[in-house]
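Hi D.,

Good news: the full-assembly prediction came through. Inputs first.
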Amino acid sequence: MMSIPYMAGFSHPRWQKIKDIMLEKTPGDPKIHRMRIIALLESDFKQANWLLIARPLTWLLEDSDMIPDMQHGSRSGKLCQSTVLNKQLLFNITRYTKETTAFIENDAMGCFDHTANPLVLLIPRRLGLPKSIVNSLAQTWEKTTHLIRTKYGISVESYINDKLNLLFGPGQGAT
Amino acid sequence: METSIRKEVKQLKLQDARRKMFDKIRTTLNPSSKISSFFRIDVPSCHTNSPIPEGPDPKLWKGPWKFITNPTDITRHVSAANHRQYGQAKDTPFGSEPLLPLYGYNADTPEADDLLEGHLPPPSILDNLYLETAAILSSLARPSPHRLAAPTAEIHKINLLTRTKP
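Then the structure:
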């Protein structure tokens, strides 16, 4: 039954309800702009996305060497902490050997929040993901209703996507 | 057929009830668990209680702060902040004109299909884009040398048992 939305290319209404929780970026400082949004999705939706989209695409990218070696996040057999360790070790070795080193660090700030839906949805289709699966995902994102979860419970009020103020991206914690 | 549907619906109801029970137990045992400990927020203290865009921008606010604990007010402020957070891509090339109306929010327009079949947008659009954006479009228009095999077998692996996660 769960496979029907993906085969037919529509979105299950239950998947369109996301609960947003807010975590303090700095513990003890709950300023509104210093909170990190985490989107809580239905577990079957997440598992289906992993099974049908994330896993086959990751295998394809790994098998065809399309991911650069320096990429550590979201890859099996690699830890993102390894990059931090490598950097620290590189600095230590440089200091001990008194060598000159140039180092550049680029941070893709707000990467998840700057994800534009059309581009994100076109890339997997180019890699061979069926249109029906992409359509199902796209419609879920488009029709999502966000509720806020606090200690008082789940809010009655919500916010949704509208044409004047579009919401983009899957949300942090959704991948 | 009807019996199997009835069985599945019954199974779904059971799973839902079990999930709610586990949620209740978890909240009762650990009422201040990290995931639900969010009960107050600090917002700019100014003449209006409205969030952005009517109220001040918290990122630029230099004045005093006040905390709010009223659930309705919290929802109002958090909704406004999140709406802005999720809307940051509206200024990116694919989140704005001319590419957004051309390919559609869901990338489901005929032009999107054309692009994947190798047809770039007309020069009147292409010439006004950043070089990087045009390069992305060219890349999308080229067939990928590595493509997925049809994942239809995977689709059938999704079963109903994945829903309950106590």
